[in-house]
From TrEMBL:
Source species taxonomy: Bacteria, Pseudomonadati, Bacteroidota, Cytophagia, Cytophagales
Catalytic activity: inosine + phosphate = alpha-D-ribose 1-phosphate + hypoxanthine; S-methyl-5'-thioadenosine + phosphate = 5-(methylsulfanyl)-alpha-D-ribose 1-phosphate + adenine; adenosine + phosphate = alpha-D-ribose 1-phosphate + adenine; adenosine + H2O + H(+) = inosine + NH4(+)
UniProt protein name: Purine nucleoside phosphorylase
Domain of life the protein comes from: Bacteria
InterPro entries: Cu_polyphenol_OxRdtase, Cu_polyphenol_OxRdtase_sf, Cytotoxic_necrot_fac-like_cat
CDD domains in the cross-refs: YfiH
PANTHER family to which the protein is assigned, alphabetical: PURINE NUCLEOSIDE PHOSPHORYLASE LACC1 (PTHR30616:SF2), UNCHARACTERIZED PROTEIN YFIH (PTHR30616)
Pfam families reported in the protein's UniProt record: Cu-oxidase_4 (PF02578)
Record's keyword terms, sorted: Hydrolase, Metal-binding, Transferase, Zinc
Gene that produces this protein: pgeF
Similarity comment: Belongs to the purine nucleoside phosphorylase YfiH/LACC1 family.
């Protein structure tokens, strides 16, 4: 399925909110050659810095975001959460949150699960990067709790999106990983002699456990592995590929 060369897709769960910028990029519309073709926005790849910079410029421009308003972190598959008080590039955090307008939070993905959260009551946002380690660490649930403690967020006023990531049928793991997941989120494939993990369902369950209503949670229908014509997949492309960004923030002119 081709998205007509769309640079990004907007999660429908946020459609009705003026002033909320939320998107996840595709692999279309950039300048990078294969194997990064074409909108590789991953700084920590072996693509040239010039290509990545131009791709990021194109993505942010298409969203009408100033690159100087963007916050990002070098992700480490942990459970640390940063309250963003100024744009910039940080290190060691896999979740970012803020209630400041014109601060656009980003997480970088290429199989791991991006989760975007908007608190419509307190006007706060969060972006979470949850690979299997972050999922096991319950980072999404911890982020909602941190938003409550910092901003007064009430989960019933939140809207969330579980973004495009590796699908269950493609995410093969050994028993040492599988044993860290509940039975609901894994199944054993006797032909492959591997367990298959459902990261989307596991993170959806954490949002529900945190108190966000199911009717206020959107889930991407796409897979990084099954739809590599539109998304980058670290696993499907043997590690030599680009990265996408998931982005969320609030515009000041709608405060």
């Amino acid at each position: 399925m081709i998205f007509s060369e769309l640079v990004y897709r907007i999660p429908p769960v946020f459609d009705s909110f003026q002033g909320v910028v939320a998107a996840e990029s595709t692999r279309h519309g950039g300048v990078s050659p294969a194997p990064f073709a074409s909108l590789n926005v991953g700084i920590n790849t072996t693509d040239t810095p010039e290509n990545v910079a131009e791709n990021r410029r194109r993505l942010f421009s298409s969203l009408q975001i100033d690159p100087d308003q963007v916050a990002a972190s070098y992700q480490v598959h942990g459970d640390r959460i940063l309250t963003v008080t100024q744009p910039g590039r940080f290190e060691g955090y896999d979740a970012l949150m803020t209630n400041l307008p014109n601060h656009f939070l980003t997480v970088t993905v290429a199989d791991c699960t991006p989760i975007l959260i908007y608190d419509a009551g307190q006007r706060a946002v969060a972006a979470v990067h949850a690979g299997w380690r972050g999922t096991v660490a319950r980072l999404v649930e911890k982020t909602v709790k941190a938003m409550h403690e910092r901003f007064g967020t009430q989960p019933e006023e939140c809207f969330a999106y579980v973004g495009t990531c590796i699908d269950q049928a493609s995410f093969e793991v050994g028993p040492e990983v599988a044993e860290q997941f509940g039975e609901t989120f894994k199944r054993f494939d006797p032909e492959r002699q591997k367990f298959l993990i459902d990261l989307k369902a596991a993170n959806m369950a954490q949002l529900l456990a945190a108190g966000i209503p199911a009717t206020q949670i959107g889930v991407s229908p796409y897979s990084t592995v099954l739809h590599t014509q539109d998304y980058f997949s670290f696993r499907a492309e043997n590690g030599n590929t680009g990265r996408m960004l998931a982005i969320i923030g609030l515009r000041s002119d709608f405060q």
